[in-house]
Amino acid sequence: MGQRPNDLTPDASPLHRWGYELRQLRQGRRLSLRGLALAALIDHSHLGRFERAERMPDRDQVARLDTALNACGSLIRAWDRLADGRGDVASPVVHVAKASAGLALTLPHQAASDSEGMSVPCRLRDGSVVWVNLDRRALLRSGVGLGVAATVGVGTSPAVAADRGTTSALARKARAASAYGATPVEHLRRTRRLLIDSDNLLGPRQVIATVHEHIGVIQELRKDAKASDRRDLAELQTQYGEFLSWLYQDLGNNEQAGYWLDRAFQWSHTVGDGELTSYVMARKAQLAGDMADLAEVVDLAEAAQRMARPRSRLAAVARTYEAYGHALRGDASESERAIDQVRQALDGVAADPTPWGSWLNAAYVEVHRARGLEVLGRHDQAADAFAGAIRLLPDGYHRDRGVYMARQAVALAGARRPEEAAVAGVHALAVAEDTGSGRIFTELARLDHELADWSRLPEVAEFRRTLNDTLLHETEQDA
Q: How far is CA 217 from the centre of its chain?
């Protein structure tokens, strides 16, 4: 008969809370201490002490545990807060100001147990807006039903679900491929195109679990595939991995976006397709730009250009990201020069047969010019450039339109045009609620801060009230 595990006391201290969350994750994955120890290469007796808060792990051990438990960085983030003395700020007591709207903005990190966190936007008592980790039990304590919680991804993770049902998933995919008169590879290609269209219209929340599942299916298919099919499947796996990184990037989870881009970059080398590898490298530059990583963005973009064919569409895509990188670094002349070169190249790359970067058009280039102008402090020019990009955007890019409107609103606020900024912000917020785009909400949190000094204006008050109604709110801790 197994020994009853020791009771844990998560409220005793932040370290006790971390140990409690570790145990909940482990049990949610149905792993014993020895099983997790083997997966994470850590002594099982140490794991027991970690869970009981008798010993503080080092960061390398935390990273291995996070990977072994598929915790999407939640253990690492909680440990970082412990290490810098911030304590257990990841689990504030919150109430839902407006459940349906607020939940539409939550980021669906895959939660495999009651305690695994989701990141959600929250209004703190000082008025600022931050992302916080919220466990499922806290969400339910706030009065949200299980049905609503399920719509934002609280429950079994796609990875765990795939582990439990890989055989049935493969059977379903095989039947679907046969029904469509195609090979499994062609069926999965068609599915990816449909998922991309869905993401453009509805945002990432609707498709991310399916993409996770399909990566698992492809990996299983590769085990028994013949040589030519193995290469096709490896190429498709790379494409799905890159797409998954994009979904996480739009959700605002840049850590997971970077993880999946790294996986896609690794997989691309097994395919031997230089253009695919160049494209993934360009995407790494784009992500570095979104993260304002001044040490990486220009170097990654230049590396992608070296890998791409001269005067190709991929080279122009990478040059676009380089332009934004120069702006982040405060180099206006280099940024403008790069954007001008991309504009001049647009007509020439239109006939490029490569499928990568097919969305490179005048609107896309104008958006990156506008972003560069905004970070350089040229807010009026940036606002006008965003307006031009929105006019040029093709139909069907609902989520991207919302991103552009949110960024335009921030530029308008910087240009001291608060009424216009607030109106644009309300429109962008509607798209954020529909799609769950973390990129939109991040911009709107910036806008909320920028407009604070104009709160008495009716348009600004309406925006801030509407935004406030979508947020979770920090409350006083229970005595």
A: 22
